[in-house]
Amino acid sequence: MNVSIGMKAPDFSAMTTFGPIKLSDYKGHWVILFSHPGDYTPVCTTEFIAFAQANDQFEALNAKLIGLSIDSNPSHLAWVNQIYLLTGIQIPFPIIADRTAEVAGMYGMIAPDASKQETVRNVLFIDPDQIIRAILVYPLTNGRNICEIIRLLTALETTDRCNVVTPANWEPGSPAMVPPPRTYDQMIERINNPQAQNLNCMDWFWCYKDKPC
């Protein structure tokens, strides 16, 4: 099964390093569900440290992190303990033990042309209504940029809250954009008086809003 943006996130029950969880337990929160190829691997270790260090930022955005690989729960526990012993950093979010690849298969986290036995580095953004809003996929060989994940999460929340869209390279605090007019009358109104809508326009279809909302 492959998931796609806009669909309801499939519910699941799974054992994790924090005990059993269900995705539906997280309704009302954003969920960042991410997979990694395997425990005790160098790139994954750096990613988990980076996610742990950014956990407070995710929490401030009403988001919960959930990791996943097809390793066993004892392997996950031993690995996160080793990370703590080596760095002093605790992993503050659950890691799913997906030995049968049930959840990985449900979410399309195994790319058979890359590996039939490991999950690639998927990141799924699931909103508080449990709708999949964005999907990022990285190869086995390259770690994720946690700042980009936070940036995209912030952009999605800003879009929902303020009815705006975000331009290329948008950063929190920067001007957002507004969707183009849907009718001729709306187009004429925007052409004649963009200031009334607090807009700074390059053209009728291309307008910025300094304060999203």
TrEMBL record:
UniProt-listed InterPro entries: AhpC/TSA (IPR000866), Peroxiredoxin (IPR050217), Peroxiredoxin_AhpC-typ (IPR024706), Peroxiredoxin_C (IPR019479), Peroxiredoxin_TDXH (IPR022915), Thioredoxin-like_sf (IPR036249), Thioredoxin_domain (IPR013766)
Top-level taxon of the source organism: Bacteria
Subunit record text: Homodecamer. Pentamer of dimers that assemble into a ring structure.
Thioredoxin domain ranges (all copies): 3-158
Similarity-based family: Belongs to the peroxiredoxin family. AhpC/Prx1 subfamily. Belongs to the peroxiredoxin family. Prx6 subfamily.
Disulfide cysteine pairs (residue numbers): 201-207
Keyword Disulfide bond carried by entry: yes
Protein role: Thiol-specific peroxidase that catalyzes the reduction of hydrogen peroxide and organic hydroperoxides to water and alcohols, respectively. Plays a role in cell protection against oxidative stress by detoxifying peroxides.
Record keywords, A-Z: Antioxidant, Cytoplasm, Disulfide bond, Oxidoreductase, Peroxidase, Redox-active center
Keyword hit for Disulfide bond: yes
Identification of the protein by name: Peroxiredoxin
Class of enzymatic activity (EC top level): oxidoreductase
Active site: 44 (cysteine sulfenic acid (-soh) intermediate)
Gene3D superfamilies found in the cross-reference section: Antioxidant, Horf6, Chain A, domain2, Glutaredoxin
GO molecular function, one term: peroxidase activity
Binding-site residues, substrate: 121
Primary location group: cytoplasm
Further information: The active site is a conserved redox-active cysteine residue, the peroxidatic cysteine (C(P)), which makes the nucleophilic attack on the peroxide substrate. The peroxide oxidizes the C(P)-SH to cysteine sulfenic acid (C(P)-SOH), which then reacts with another cysteine residue, the resolving cysteine (C(R)), to form a disulfide bridge. The disulfide is subsequently reduced by an appropriate electron donor to complete the catalytic cycle.
Catalytic activity annotation: a hydroperoxide + [thioredoxin]-dithiol = an alcohol + [thioredoxin]-disulfide + H2O
